[in-house]
Amino acid sequence: MPALPAPLKCACLVDRRDDTLLLVRVRDNPHWYLPGGKIEPGETPAAALQRELLEELGIRLETDSIRYLYTVIGPAYGQPGEVELVCFAGNWPGEPRACAEISEIAWLPLAQTDKFAPTVRQLCAEHLQQA
C-alpha cells in the first residue's frame, strides 16, 4: 500500500463570537472553511496567516495580537491524506471582504457543523463545543 502524503499544513484564523464562527467558502465548493491557507516553504505559520488573510479577506492581522491556539490534524477534503490546521486568534481593523478565490464570508452557528469541512467539524468538536 503506498504511503499517504505528508499532511498539508495550513495556518487558520479561529474567530468565535458567541455561538458563531467566522468561516469562508471557496467558489464551487459546498463546504465552509476557516479563513487562512497553505503555509509556504520557509514561511512561519503566523506569517502565512497574515499573508492569506490579506489576500483572501483584505484584512491586516495585527502582528502583536496573533496568538497560537492549537493544531488539529484531520482528513483533507477532496484529496488523499490529511490536513494540519495550525490555528490562531488575532485582531484586525475593518471588516473582511471576499477576495481572490473566496466567494462568501459568514458568521455561521456552531450548531451547523454539517456545512463545515470535515477537519473544521473535528476542530469544533475538540475545541469549541461547550461542555
From TrEMBL:
Q: Which CDD domains match?
A: NUDIX_Hydrolase
Q: Write down the PROSITE patterns for this protein, in alphabetical order.
A: NUDIX, NUDIX_BOX
Q: Per its record, how is this protein called by name?
A: NUDIX domain-containing protein
PANTHER family under this entry? GDP-MANNOSE MANNOSYL HYDROLASE (PTHR43046), MUTT_NUDIX FAMILY PROTEIN (PTHR43046:SF14)
Q: Which organism is it from?
A: Crenobacter intestini
Q: Which GO terms describe its molecular function?
A: hydrolase activity
Q: Coiled-coil intervals in this record?
A: none
The family note in this entry says: Belongs to the Nudix hydrolase family.
